[in-house]
Design a protein that fits this description.
By secondary structure, the protein is an alpha+beta fold. The protein has two domains: 6-207 and 323-404, Aminopeptidase (3-Layer(aba) Sandwich); 208-321, Alpha-Beta Plaits (2-Layer Sandwich). The chain is 36% helix and 24% strand. It contains eleven helices and 16 strands. Strand 3, helix 3 and strand 4 form a beta-alpha-beta unit. Bound molecules: (2S)-amino(hydroxy)ethanoic acid (HGY) and manganese (II) ion (MN) (2 copies).
Length: 405
Amino acid sequence: MATVSVSEIIEQVSRFTSMKEEITRLVYEQSWVDAQRYIGTLGAKLGMNVAVDEMGTAILSVRGSSEEKSAITIGSHIDSVINAGKYDGVYGVAAGIVAVSELVRQYGQPRKNIQVLSFSEEEGSRFPMNFSGSRFVINQVPENMDELKDNQGITFSEAKQHAVSQLHETLSKGQAYEVENFTEIHIEQGPVLENQKKQIGIVTGIVAQKRFSITVNGQGNHAGTTPMSMRKDALKQAMVLIGRLEEIAQEIGEPLVFTVGEMHVFPNVSNVIPSQVVFSIDIRHMDMNVLQLFEDRMLAQIRQQKQDRLMEILVDCWLDEPAEKTNPELSALLDQICKEKNISSHVMSSGAGHDTQIMNLVAPTALLFVPSRAGISHSPLEYTSAEDLNTGKDVLKEFIYRLAY
Ligand code: HGY
Ligand code: MN
Ligand code: MN
């Protein structure tokens, strides 16, 4: 039977990218199709049953002897942000595949069904919606999903249809099993484990997060002939707003995080006063009330600016995800396994969002981290050593063994 290492899978998937000098694999792009096809083909080579659902999530499963309807479920995502690292999401899929295939090779058929889900999309880096793969598995996708458009005006349904139909040429159509419990292993994407010199993070909670798209509408005009007092400069008003929001975030204080990561200026020409600016806001905190406080102060600031400058400022909140707590019994089992294996561990919360928080809506979940060098992620500098990757896979493997055999 074929064998493969976690690092080999990560290296192979990292080659599927839409940009020459960097890793960018946005959902439903050709690089995404090639990566998901590789995952499905690999699962088949390793003797797993493989299917792809209508969102494009790959389901790699092993039937259990007990013939139950549900499955012990492991998963993460293979889509990426722009100019990404190679480990975010992909590590969880790779570790799940290797752990399960090693278990079957060592112990034969499990008692319970096991499935590894390579979710179609988690990041929200192409369309204004995230977690679409795991939301589909739990049957909770937003109504307007198919009409959502990316920055090129391509709809979610066009992109999905074009990509998933390619996967279904070689991989069979199918659905995930009902989820008995869900486990995700992921790089930490932060500095805590490295600073604490711990090998495994046992994650008890995932932050609440809200994401907005803010549109400032001004009046395009000549940069040279328009007096400053007569301008409706969309970019300047956006800057005033962002500067004030930064002060509000500092006044509320850590661990609130506030990010403006994306900005589009129209018409984006040096001698034209910008008529429109669209920018993103991402805020996170374990306490939803703190996010609400920030949002209330943001809306008050926007009302003030609209009055003062008679300009239109539109707010679209497209993500409003509450904080989630993982299952204490499953975390306790992870803790016990780390102690038995003499692996150092640290109980912590996650500042990053994960598919775990969606699966947590329907089933008990566990989330474990491995260290990120210098805490860097969503960057080509993202790195985790092969040793740490394998320690995580070994803990996950023992964890699945306890649950499924
Ligand atoms: O943005 C996040 O928290 C995750 O990496 N999707
Ligand atoms: Mn991720
Ligand atoms: Mn990410």
